[in-house]
Amino acid sequence: MNLMPWLAVLRQMARRWDLPLLGCVSLLFAGGQVVLMSASPDRVDSLWVHQCLALAALLVAAQVPFRWWLRLALPLYLVGVLLLVAVLLFGETAKGATRWLNLGVARVQPSELMKLAVPLMLVWYFSLRRQSLAWWDHAVALVLLAIPAALILKQPDLGTTILVVAAGGFVLFFAGLSWRLIVPLVLALAIGVGALLVQGDRWCEPDVAWPMLHDYQKQRVCTLLDPERDPLGKGFHTIQAAIAIGSGGVWGKGWREGTQSQLSFIPERHTDFIFAVLAEEFGFFGAAVLLAAYALLLLRGAWLSARSPTWAGMLMGGAVVGTTFIYAFVNVAMVSGMLPVVGVPLPFISYGGTALVTLATGLGLLSSAAAEHAPERGFSGWRRVT
Amino acid sequence: MTDRGLDSEAVVSRTRRRLAVLVVLILAGFSGLLGRLHQLQVREHARFQTLAEDNRQAFVPIVPHRGQILDVHGEALARNVRAYTLEIDPAQVRNLDDTIERLSRIVTIEESDRKRFLRQMRDQRGLGSVAIRQHLTDEEVARFVAWKFAFPGVEVQARLFREYPQGEATAHVVGYLGRINEQDQERLEAEGLTGAYRGTDYIGKEGIELQYETLLHGTTGWERLEVNAAGRAVRRLDRREAVSGKDLVLTIDARLQRFVLDAFAGRRGAFVALDPRDGSVIAMVSSPSFDPKLFLDGLSQADWERLALSEDRPLFNRALRGTYPPGSTFKPFMATLGLTSGKRQPGQRFDRQGMFEYSGVKLYDKKSSCQSGVDLHRALTFSCNVYFYTLGNELGIDAISSFMSKLGFGQRTGIDLPNEAPGVLPSREWKRQRFKKASQQQWFGGETLSTSIGQGYNAYTPLKMAHALSILVNGGVIRKPHVLAATIDPVTGERTPVSGEVTGFVKLDPAHVDAVLRAMVDGARIGTSARAFAGAAYSVGGKTGTAQVFSLQGRKYDPSATDEDLRDHSWYIAFAPADEPRIVAAIIVENGGPGGRTAAPLMRQIFDYYFSSHEGSGEGDGR
User: Tell me, what's the ipTM?
Assistant: First the structure.
């Protein structure tokens, strides 16, 4: 049997895969394995499956020409919004939030799809309008972003809302949203957070209702400001995570030696709080290595995006890099007690198949966008062989 | 490269510049995180090291005592009793399965006990002891104590359990506790109360136990323990005491509840009595009732089938949630409207009242007292239908529904009990929304006639009927009915009374109200309920009602020939003493036939009991 044509196909396909990027992802996956073997050994078997699925998603998504992805943008977005509306109408409720839709065969969480569909939709819109961009294009994009964001916030799911808004926001940013709008927004946010830190005690009185936010979200912010407020409930998480991280010291207590982690003081230690396990057992050093791995991944992603031959590709790549950064930043900041507890996983590390596949597909999109300059490559390579 | 030509260079380079901004943002963000981690892991490491090593802390909840529920005389309706539980401290037991297996040879341990044990152990993260069996008998305790040496880490503890001493008599009002289930858990999580309920197994599911859950539960305290590397508690660091739940004093009278339930003798029905002076509920009984104890540890399959599938629906609180056409008990309110609207004068007499003809249909009233010379007083005393047909026809449905709505018909009274049924006050608008077909959405004049005598679409709870009558007795002042009389702080003993809340006012002429009430007094003296109240030691005013269950469609109604469950519902509403009412009540007996025959005598029995027990002990005005 002649393997040469197949090897040629593989070589063609490999051009759409970026080795440094894949290297960073593999590094993070390996780290995830090691930490999970300590945090929750029972789940390592399924982690393998999740990681293989995620890798496959990345590799396949990279092979799909970016133009095809753009063509999918509108249908994906519309289906996503429809599903979100369906969730609000007939969704399944668990833990006080309605996030799942039972389709008979499987339970799906449409908000997860929107993490990619929303930026893709905005990229498609901007690339459609790229020759005559006007200020109101940003307004249209903002509406396209606000609809799914509002639907997800209503579920309520603050974590996913933040990620979807971040993804769409980055597209707007890269598409040239005026600094005159960005600066006041960032300032307002900073002032809001600052005021909260100063006025927190008064605002956290039980009879003060906060506009727009649910009571449980208020609780989370208040618990952040004063974890002792609710030591049996949410405050427990924040206190114990801080103890775990702090007691890790420079070099950590050693793999599977973390007393906080092993004695179940850390809540959700295999999902959202897995960083606390890593920081306790591998110390400041281990945490710094993780952050370095993220930095490498993100910088490589930014580099690939900047070199993307199409403007649309640059926007999409930038959005993926930005969102992945938000994941990592928000999760680490939340576990180390700088941000309130919102449901954002540690990217590529936290246990959870859906988030893993979404993140990897994002990188696949980025790779696809970066490789677009040679239309004859990608799947078209198949045609030449057969 | 096809697209590049279309991307303007300026736009592309701006995006590149912004990617550079993102890179700066990423580096700055990660530096910030590194700074925070440096602070925690390097600069403050020593402090956290101590916290983690020496002070491996565990928060163990201290469950507050749930408040008691008392009746108006201080009799216990729900209280906590000590019972023995068998508890295992998993940290001190080497082989749990073996221990449980050996224990099961001494005391009975069911599969459900094991499951509950495992679940609770998980919840407590292996800290503190967990019950493997509850409610041990004295014999079991004795047997275990004899064998205790063989079970290190297993103890008998006296714990508090809920008890309902009045059982069936107050079940519907007091409600019951049940184990916190998945739905409760989700609700607690959504409200951020999981911390407040750690260690609590039971939560209010129905009645007062549900309504005042927050007051009754109290505040969970905690104990901060130092735990060694094996997870065993070594030392207590600090402690915040639990705050016991408030004791609740209700307005209801347990003895009266018991008497009323017995008087129903198993018949389906409900009784509600209010004190018109402050809106407090003197009694609320739904018959048949159930034993709330059954819910404490989950209903057994057999009990569930017996209670939930019974045709008598003992779990259904008829007083609060059963809605019935009020029948002629609606007439006092129609009469009030007649006077208020000016369509009728008190002394205005009408003759030829034996028959009313409406678009070819003849409606008869054969009662001899109702044939001629019928004025408002006589129409109420003897419950003359034609007087009210004529009145309703003149008023029209819009005037009727607008006035009745002011009296709160078709709305919840706002009583402090969960899931009150609002009932139905028919109106054009209601009918439009109720029906889908255009032909059914239209309001017909004939329907106004049946509405005027309390039949047709009208449907109200016994609570609402008593409430509406108390509005009349109060000359138009609307007070929200309430079951809670006072809360008592278990620590200080401080008693905080709950005062009746005035929620509205209907403008009524005192002379009109007086005319209606006087006619009701004559109803009990010489009218439709005269036989029931003959020789009563107190003055009383009342109105009978007979609610049609089933449209007879032209056939003649014959109580003896009709199937029991098609027979009419029997109503009576009353107030006493007539000059200064202290009690206003409504009673319904399902399928009891005419109101004067079933409901009114039952009301007489209850009022006799109420006044003899109250006048005798001088408690009549004590509430």
Answer: 0.89
